[in-house]
Amino acid sequence: MLRMADMADKETLKALWKLCFNEEQGFLDWFFENRFLPDYCPVYEEEGGIASALHSLPVYISLRDSILPCAIVAGVATHPDYRGRGLMNKLLAFFMDRLRQEGIPLIAHRPVNLEIYRSAGHFPASDSRFVELAASAPRPLTDDCVDWDIPGHYADLYRCYNRFAKSYSGMVQRSYADFVLKCGDYLASGALCVATLDAHGNVEGYCLYFKEEGEEPALLGEECAALSPEAYGRLYAALARRSAGRLLKLRLAPDAGLAPEGARVKVLPRSVLGVTDVSALLSSLCLPDEGAIEVIDPLLPANRGVFSLVGRPTSERPQLRIPAGRLAQWAVGYRSMADLVKTSQATAPDPAIVPRMDELGMRPCFIIDEY
Predict the structure, then answer these.
(1) Which of 68, 231, 260, 347 is 20 to 30 A from 353 (CA-CA)?
(2) Spans in the chain with pLDDT lower than 70
């Protein structure tokens, strides 16, 4: 049986999360005390027990020049005895339909394996730049960054985040309260902070990072935000020095431009975006009401059919046929419609509609949140 969780399920879901993710107790306790929202947690119940659950959080994300409500997936936990039965897609379909009814048109997440969600019609909608520096590689001799106590500098860090977030489509647009709560997530796992300041003492960039022990000790840069290439360079120097004797692993915005000598750099797809309401998505883009597209969706019947470019169902002959997940890639500005058609991920019986849709242009896309 599919249903939404309630508060009475908290301890059961906490135990399931621990079983599936082997989470540190500190973060586990923090999450279920501060982040567990039954209205954003669908569960699959069988024989009186919860076999699978999808945890998510309400956020707002930018979609080009609009800001839309969205649910960001924090984790999908399925008991080992119930895996391989397609419960993930059942949970997604059930929850996405509920989100549509609640007026939330998008769902975002960062899968461990991007291929897992292709069957649900969810595809990459942003990239990340990964920078790694071996523990044995030379480090800078100096840096001019500062080590900060995170709670003592929420306002300074938020000012930088707020400016940074406005540069990207698909980015979580946090309020100050959201930012403080997100910092709480990091602090529950022992996060540290380094910041670089401009000549007036304002934060020009920061990184929230962790030191991991084990067979290969590492420094992990989890949230790095900078307002200029120079700020990224200064943060890198600071983190490289603080990772002496450790592997350094950073995840940055794809356009950060950082390519330090001796480091390995890759830009790879990272986060995916799903559409829960095609009509609402199209209407947010303010396209001219000319032409019609047919949308295909493997999970949501309400998303299937022919729509005008302003999101109204129509009986017109479609000029374009596209899966809902590919529509999301185009809508956020991650891929052009011309590229989607060229690679046969959409078809255009009437190609004239393609340049009309691509008048919106592409946008830098990034999502910094790691759930």
Answers:
(1) 68
(2) none
